Amino acid sequence: MRKLAFIYPGQGAQKAGMGADFYRHSKEAKELFDEADQALDFPLKEICFEQNDKLNETSYTQPAMVTTCLAMTRVLTTRGIRPDITAGLSLGEYAAIAAAGALEELDAILLVRKRGLLMEHAVPAGEGAMCAILGMTGEDLEREVRDIRDVTIANYNCPGQMVITGKTEAVRAAAEHLKTAGAKRTIPLNVSGPFHSPFLRTAGERLREEIEKLALHPLRVPYVANVTAEKVERQEEICDLLSGGVSSPVKWQQTMEYMIEEGVDTFVEIGPGRTLSGFLKKINTQVSVYQISSWEDVERVASELC
Question: Which are the catalytic amino acids?
Answer without folding.
Answer: 90, 196
